[in-house]
Design brief:
With about 650 residues, the chain is mainly beta. The chain is about 5% helix and about 45% strand. A hairpin with a 3-residue loop joins β39 and β40.
Length: about 650
């Protein structure tokens, strides 16, 4: 072992900048944030509502221009922008059902339509007020003619072909079509692939559905043909967008799996061959592609990680590098291409290659993907996201962004100091000051009962910090070949580590031991750990929940063995509250297990972390933002 005094911390308070000043940048320039001015307190009203939701209104997932206003769909509501830069935010107070908006469309009467990521309802805005339809079917039947004459469709909501009379909807597991008189439903029996979430039509009437593979048929046919994805698409969740070109070819934008690039691919109109365009082979293609669109002139537009690319008919791909910006959506207005990004709205004069922006609205969170939650000693809530750290005072209804770097994990020291693990190193927060304590990226961290901080560096080294002294305890990559993503330290001083290879332990004597499926786990892919009041270790895996008693006895829990109390076998977090209840975040929602082994749940998509505060409120971090839940909303599994 060796030890060294920790580096002298920088005494800067790092916080989210106020809206960045408008700038004009050549797309090849690096976009750097402005210096770190103090971010003002943002109202975050905690009401008596049974469910509340907050997110980053500047992380844009869809963009639409209606001829007068630019509309931005975000996981924090809908923002209407004038082209002069004035904005108006629409939330539940104005008539939305949820803030987690996933798509926008414009019908033939220029009414705006909104679909949600966490609700089945649709909302319609007529220019004065919002009206909510309880289901897409109800909306289509009531507003059939307006939807059939849509000016700007969205295949996440509905589609139709020019001159056609059928309105098509993609629903989970099937696709539906309405002709003004009756519904037709196509599912797996007819050949439609599972997990359908998008439906598109060509001008000739060929229908495409995107799900766990592709399905296609001519409009009116009952039986569908299915197709496998392009070879570089390993899983259906990698597909981010789709579009049909004037010739009837299908374009898919996709991300690569961890460590690999994505791109875009084209399936010929006859569905007999794929053509792929990958960043690895063509540097003009963004490294990851999030959006594809086909212009009226046949130009293919791609938005993605740090870049915008386009290809006019008969020309090669051209790239406009937008360093630091992820392009999630775009829309044309007044001769400019407007970009919906993870950092607000930017506008681009394509021919001049000049980028202007950003437009930002005040937001309580920086980033919509909540990855870590922690309650401070004064009842304050700390919210770590993919872009920064927010401080929330639920009592006063205020929020402030403290750190504008991605957060991986949070831990609370015995003295009340907050520790923050990030790709840029280890930070701490106390006495209203954020300090940088360790410069190498941190993968995971925890504080033990004696107040010692334990953390894993990106190089796979295990450190402990006590006072101002940092000690390297082990080199996990050399000794175990493991990269932990969560830590827990029990009363015996054993450090437990969640890894992709299994459950790794490091004893006080410096010995390692790896538990795998052969020893009791449901999966070697261990995601999170929590210690119970009797010293039991709760283990969240990719294939269910496991409990390990101090005696070494294992108990495994699945969706079947819990009667559906465990909402999904794909787990992301476990947390034990002050009352001894176990809380779990899964891909389909939050589960709760009492000490008496009673189970309850609340469904919300993509739950990633969970916390119960001292007042009993349940806070849920998802990939679409932060939820606050009254525990009375839980559904209990009958005995």
């Amino acid at each position: 072992m060796w030890e060294t005094p920790s580096p002298e911390p920088s005494r800067e308070v790092v916080s989210l900048a106020t809206p960045l000043p408008s700038s004009t940048l050549a797309p090849q320039e690096v976009l750097a944030p402005s210096p770190t001015p103090t971010f003002p307190l943002i109202p975050l009203k905690v009401a008596q509502s049974s469910v509340q939701h907050w997110s980053d209104v500047n992380d844009i997932v869809d963009l639409l221009y209606d001829g007068e206003f630019l509309w931005a769909a975000t996981s924090g509501g809908v923002v209407r922008w004038s082209l002069e830069g004035e904005h108006l935010l629409y939330t539940q107070a104005e008539g939305l059902v949820s803030l987690a908006v996933k798509g926008l469309a414009l019908d033939g009467e220029r009414h705006l339509w909104v679909a949600y990521a966490d609700r089945q309802e649709w909302s319609e805005f007529d220019g004065q007020r919002w009206h909510t339809w309880s289901s897409p079917r109800e909306a289509v039947e009531a507003r059939y003619k307006a939807l059939l004459q849509a000016q700007k469709m969205n295949p996440r909501l509905w589609s139709h072909r020019p001159g056609g009379s059928w309105v098509w909807l993609a629903r989970e597991g099937h696709v539906e079509a309405y002709d003004g008189q009756r519904w037709r439903v196509y599912a797996e029996y007819e050949g439609v692939r599972r997990h359908t979430w998008m439906v598109l039509l060509s001008a000739s009437g060929q229908v495409w559905t995107v799900g766990a593979g592709l399905s296609t048929a001519e409009e009116g046919d009952r039986w569908w043909e299915d197709h496998n994805f392009f070879a570089e698409i390993g899983h259906w969740s990698q597909v981010r967008d789709a579009a049909v070109d004037p010739d009837g070819g299908l374009w898919l934008a996709f991300m690569g799996p961890p460590g690999r690039d994505g791109g875009v691919c084209w399936l010929s109109p006859g569905a007999d061959h794929w053509e792929g365009y990958l960043h690895a082979l063509n540097q003009a293609i963004p490294r990851q592609v999030y959006r594809v669109s086909v212009g009226d002139d046949g130009t293919i537009w791609l938005g993605g990680e740090g870049a915008l690319a386009f290809r006019r008919p008969g020309h090669p791909w051209k790239r406009l590098s937008l360093s630091g910006l992820d392009v999630n959506a775009f829309a044309w207005a007044k001769g400019k291409l407007w970009l919906g990004t993870s950092e607000g709205i930017w506008s681009l004069k394509v021919d001049q290659e000049e980028l202007e922006g950003p437009w930002l609205a005040p937001s309580p969170l920086l980033g919509r993907q909540v990855v870590s939650l922690l309650e401070g000693p004064e009842g304050h809530l700390y919210v770590g996201t993919n872009k920064g750290l927010s401080w929330v005072d639920p009592t006063r209804g205020e929020a402030r962004v403290l750190l504008s770097v991605p957060v991986r994990q949070l831990a609370l020291g015995k003295s009340g100091k907050l520790w923050i693990g990030t790709p840029q190193g280890l930070w701490s927060f106390a006495l209203d000051v954020v300090e940088h304590n360790f410069s190498e990226g941190v993968l995971a961290l925890t504080s033990d009962a004696q107040g010692v901080l334990w953390f894993i560096s990106e190089e796979g080294k295990l450190f402990s910090q006590e006072g101002q002294v940092i000690r390297q305890q082990a080199d996990l990559t050399k000794q175990c070949g493991a990269f932990p993503r969560d830590l827990a330290v029990d009363g015996e001083g054993t450090v437990w580590m969640a890894t992709e290879e299994g459950l790794l332990s490091f004893s006080r004597e410096g010995e390692f031991h790896l538990e795998t499926r052969e020893g009791g786990l449901l999966s070697n892919d261990v995601r999170a750990l929590a210690l119970g009041p009797e010293g039991e270790l709760w283990i969240a895996t990719a294939r269910g929940l496991v409990r390990r008693l101090p005696s070494g006895r294992w108990t495994r829990y699945t969706t079947e063995s819990t009667g559906g109390g465990l909402r999904s076998m794909e787990m992301w977090d476990v947390f034990v509250d002050d009352r001894g209840k176990l809380w779990m975040a899964t891909s389909k929602g939050v589960s709760c297990r009492t000490p008496e082994a009673d189970w309850a749940y609340w469904d919300v998509p993509e739950a990633h972390c969970v916390l119960v505060d001292h007042m009993g409120a349940v806070w849920i971090g998802t990939l679409q933002g932060l939820y606050r839940l009254d525990p009375q909303e839980l559904s209990w599994i009958p005995d």
